[in-house]
Amino acid sequence: MLPTPFVNILSLEPMNCEFGLCVFLEAINERGEDGEPVVVPYQKTVAMGVFDGLGGRSAGYDGMTGGKIASSLASRITKQFLQQRYGHFNEQDITQLQKDICNLLKTNADTKIKQSRLQGTMAGKRLCTTLALVSISYITPANNSFRLSLGWIGDSRIYFLSPTKGLQQLTKDDLTIENDAFKLIREDPPMSQYLTADMNANWRINFKTEEFSENGCVLACTDGCFQYLESPWAFEKLLLETLIQCQSFTDWQNLLLDAYTKIKQDDVSLVLRSVGFESFHALQDSYKQRFAIIRDRFSYQIDDYQKLETHWSIYKQNYEEKIKSEYLTTKYNQEPLVSHHKQSQKVVKTSEYEDEQQVKVNDTFQQKSFGEDREQLNKKEVVKLLEQGDKYWKMNSYQLAIYQYSNALRLDPDNCDTEWKLGCAYTELGFFEQKVYVNIFKSRHHKTAVNFFEKALSNPYITKTSEDKYIYLKALLGDRNYDKVIQVCHEIIQNVPNCAYAFHVIGYSQKQQDLLEIALENLLKAKELYQVEQKYQQVQEIDNLCNEIEKKLKAT
Question: Which keywords does this chain's UniProt record carry (predicted)?
Fold first, then answer.
């Protein structure tokens, strides 16, 4: 059940009004593994926590995965822990919390999980979960100074959203390979520690404090909130774009819920608390300038990974200010690592070494003095780049796929299959961004996709079936090029006379062109074919379109 916004619950003095929201969403209904977020508010303190169960690591019981059991137990114990301390905690308290949670996990694992079921689990770990916990307390009410106490383990995070500096990561992920937030979106290295019934002796919940002297918002969230967006600033943009559009915290929560419902690839737990604002509109006004900066200076139409890195080099100056980590510069020349800590994720880690080599691919070729050697090397690199692009495609990392395919096309400019892959990637990227950033991206990616498809189709050696052309149609529809859509559909019908989808798309396109009577004729033909194929969902879609057309015809 979705928690309601915790608006003005025991207002944090001395502010007149404090606000918060919570988004709690399962990737698959009734199969989620995040524990229920915790919010414990008091007069001058509020504490929040999130928990991400690691179902891929352990067996469960009573029809629940080990991850769901672990995160739920951790949530319950943490709520009691915070209530006993009125929302406050220090480093010693965090040590006690770890003992309380892990003892309960161990007791449940020992009594309810049979030994035989442990075979094959990763390192024998049972009932595993992350935790990210924050307590907000005022220091000096006169100047709105406040202190954050942070406790975390695993890859769930605490952020501060500053009206002047933007999103700032406050906690450092516990991972086996150290990297920055930009690269971690494209990789998924295993966690180095987490809460479990079988804790390693040196595993500890991290603890630190931070102090702020400006108004802002504090967030606790699991990785489903940020891991599947294309960049760290895309997370900030999603937060601010939804904030600017709404009139209340309830609206903001609902807009975020709608956005994540469209793009979710993992469970989403996000708890947010504003600090220092006297009203929602005061909060909203304070972020308008920051939103303009994110919207105007940080592009979301980038195909070149190097340009994305340039954006990151600017953005990270404020984003990383509070973690101040020294990232590893060692290059890893090894097989890609596969993360097993989430059943729902199918993400393959690419080594830094391979990425750097791909970025420098043109420089490598410039150093080759013999044309024949260069040609052979080009062929090998093209294969490598296409394989890597295909991996990113399967991960839904369309920008990274485009980057790999574009490099391959530069090395082999007449490769129609690469052009086709680029068309597919641009098509999906366009629809993905339209889901996340409503009305921002109309057809630019789709127009680019159409150009690549048409260039590929102009090659006499390309062989594409009618089914292959469906994604070409998808790009044309995204570009609203309805004349071309109808033309391609007729080409498909020549090869597949009873293609219901082609008649469906023709009818839809003609409806968009206000050719209502002929649109109705083609839609009814599609409906007849769908009924033969017993595709009743499509039949319902056709009925809805026909009803709209009939209403328009009656009105005229």
Answer: TPR repeat
Q: What is the dihedral of CA 9, 10, 11, 17, to 10 degrees?
A: 40
Please calculate the CA angle 326-331-333 and round it to the nearest 5 degrees.
Answer: 150
CB within 8 Å of 311: residues ≥ 6 apart: 231, 233, 298, 299, 302
311 within 8 A of 299, measured Cβ to Cβ: yes
User: CA angle, 229 as apex, 224 and 235 as ends, to 5°?
Assistant: 85
Domain of residue 210 covers 20-319
For residues 357 and 437, what is the distance between their CA atoms, to the nearest angstrom?
Answer: 33
CATH code (residue 142): 3.60.40.10
Question: Which token pair is 469?
Answer: 């052309």
Indicate whether 384 belongs to any domain: no
What is the Cα–Cα distance from 426 to 40, expressed in whole angstroms?
45
> What are the structure tokens assigned to 161, written together?
């959203």
Which of left, alpha, beta for 219 (phi over 0: left; psi -120 to 50: alpha)? beta
The predicted-structure confidence for 189-227, as pLDDT tens digits, reads as follows 889 999 999 999 999 999 999 999 999 999 999 999 998
Instruction: Give the span between the Cα atoms of 193 and 34, in whole angstroms.
Output: 17
- The DSSP-derived string for 113-149 is S-GGGGTTSGGG--S-B-EEEEEEEEEEGGGTEEEEE
Q: In which element (H, E) is residue 36 found?
A: strand 34-41
Q: How far apart are CA 340 and CA 28, in angstroms?
A: 18
Domain count, the chain: 1
The reply to whether 360 falls in a domain is no
* CA–CA separation, 516 and 546 (whole Å): 9
Query: Could you give the CA distance from residue 351 to residue 363 in angstroms, rounded to a whole number?
Result: 20
Q: 161 forms bridges with which residues in the sheet? A: 167, 217
Q: Does 159 reside within a domain? A: yes
Round to whole Å and give the CA distance between 399 and 409. Answer: 15
Q: Which residues of the chain have pLDDT under 70?
A: 1-18, 56-58, 114-123, 139-143, 299-305, 325-377, 432-444, 464-467
Cβ-contact 87, 47 below 8 angstroms: yes
* Total length of the chain: 556
Q: In terms of C-beta density within 10 A (0-12 exposed, 13-18 middle, 19 or more buried), how is residue 404 classed?
A: buried
Phi, psi of 458 (to 5 degrees): -75, -15
- Residue 142 belongs to some domain of the structure: yes
- 399/438 Cα distance (integer angstroms): 18
- Give the span between the Cα atoms of 418 and 402, in whole angstroms: 10
In the chain, what percentage of residues exceed pLDDT 70?
A: 79
